[in-house]
Amino acid sequence: MPGTVPEQDAADERPLIELRQISKTFGAVKALQDLEVSIRPGELVTVVGPSGCGKSTLFNILAGLEEPDPGNILRLKGVSSTASDLLGKVSFMPQRDLLLPWRNVIDNAILALEVEGMPRAEARRLAMDMLPEFGLAGFEAQYPNQLSGGMRQRVALMRTFLFKRDLMLLDEPFGALDALTRTMMQRWLLDVWQKHKRTVLFITHDVDEAIFLGDRVLVMTARPGRIKLEQAVDLPRPRKADIVTSPEFIALKKTLLEAIEEESMKSFQVAGR
Ligand SMILES: Nc1ncnc2c1ncn2[C@@H]1O[C@H](COP(=O)(O)OP(=O)(O)OP(=O)(O)O)[C@@H](O)[C@H]1O
Ligand SMILES: [Mg+2]
């Protein structure tokens, strides 16, 4: 029916997820206050901000693990939701890689699928098909202690990709890696993201990483966290490694560093009081 087409177009323009007036209090600590953000389908949005400003708390809310304070508005594809409605609808890689030491690569990768009730044989088949793309072909029977840090992160990422949800949350996935491995993982992640067309929110402490990966960078304030700056990254894709030396990249970096430094100073002053 011709009449349905514009409606469909409007639906595609809708944010995938919208947060309004999100606050979160833990006892005497106000972790988030009136945070507002909306994410469009297919975007890769990076999040930076001082340590303790509430980034992981934001992700816990989006993953349905924490309920925000009353008065908040959360919408998934335009539908009002509570945080607990989001549980199981989002794929989440927490800040610490949670590989189980007694499970090999393949069985760690299928964990979320198994929890969801997929038969193990079927889940293993899906994961085996994905191994080469994640640089893990031939390592399916290895245990986490037999893998390098980069490989462990790729197993944890593979688990997150296998659990196919509209929104993917990655909390400092490369934080523990050396600079060279990290750069390689960033390029690899962009390739995988472009192929799988997923919507990603990515927390990092590394401004270069935030710009290199992101369509937008969100800078959070010192605690209580809210969005201080939303910076669009209009650098062409696919992005090559040497883009970090371009004048456009350096100008973005300057703007972002200034915003982050201002907030980091505030959190130090508060901590010193
Ligand atoms: N479950 C909890 N109970 C009590 N306080 C909490 C809880 N989770 C987080 N907090 C507090 O909320 C604040 C924000 O923590 P959060 O982990 O979200 O910060 P972050 O921005 O992710 O920091 P980092 O960059 O160091 O990972 C901190 O003061 C922390 O102590
Ligand atoms: Mg954190």
TrEMBL record:
Residues 17-247 form the ABC transporter domain. Keywords: ATP-binding, Nucleotide-binding, Transport. CDD domains: ABC_NrtD_SsuB_transporters. It comes from the Bacteria. SMART domains: AAA. Pfam families: ABC_tran. Coiled coil: none annotated. One of its GO terms (molecular function) is ATP binding. InterPro entries: AAA+_ATPase (IPR003593), ABC_transporter-like_ATP-bd (IPR003439), ABC_transporter_ATP-bind (IPR050166), P-loop_NTPase (IPR027417). PANTHER family: ABC TRANSPORTER ATP-BINDING PROTEIN (PTHR42788:SF2), TAURINE IMPORT ATP-BINDING PROTEIN-RELATED (PTHR42788). Belongs to the ABC transporter superfamily. This is ABC transporter ATP-binding protein. It comes from Kumtagia ephedrae. The lineage of its organism: Bacteria, Pseudomonadati, Pseudomonadota, Alphaproteobacteria, Hyphomicrobiales.
